[in-house]
Specification:
single chain, 271 residues, mainly alpha, two-stranded antiparallel sheet, 2 strands
Amino acid sequence: MATAMASGRTVWALAGAGFRRFATYRQATVAGAFTNSVFGFMRCYILLSVTGVAGQAGGYDRAQLATFVWAGQGLLAVVSYWAALDLGERVRSGEVMADLLRPVDLMVSYLATDVGRAGYATLTRFVVPMVVGMLTFDFYLPAHPPAYLAFALSVLLAVLICSVCRYLVGLTAFWLLDVRGVTMMWVFASGAGSGLFFPLPFLPDWLVTALWVLTPFPALLQAPLDILVERGGPGHAVVLLAGQAAWLAVVVAVARLVQRRALRRLVIQGG
């Protein structure tokens, strides 16, 4: 019990450190929130124009699309496909050896710090675009109070899935040393497959099904946004949350396996 409590305090301290670290980047926060808001107007007008006289597209009405766009702009910095993990650089420089000597597991340390970053982004980068969007467009707000709790849980799962995936990208440094190419591939694939550019239901049904079943990408953005606009109702929200939980289990299992092989490679090379 005492060990578990100590571990919990350590993880909490790491998350707090991540929060405080990103809270020091005030100018970047203001610039990022402003940029997200500008692109929010552009994306919102483009998607609303798609609805045409029918007033809906892909199963979303105009209010749902507005919420989808502005909440998505806010979640960009929370989920953060491109938030840099310094793991690749620390592997290349050899500093990762110091990380491995610490009493906290390497992956747990990175995930806890990233959750702290996401917490700060939620209070700043998420809130600003949402307020701007609500003041300038007709918004869809969930009619059922449990939808807000489901949305918050979905966002947390999305943050964890994305963090583990970026950790996996960082682990490739044990083999490649330079992870910039892998990072670019990850950013493009995750953005295109997660609903970042447009809602996934705009795509052919077979492609949407393949993305949901074969990749974790829709769990990063499409899932929490669909829950927020109550697309498909409460039953669909439960399915989306279950899917996110399943993908989190999968990517964590893969990350643990890759980490063990990466550390074995480090030992074999004499690290």
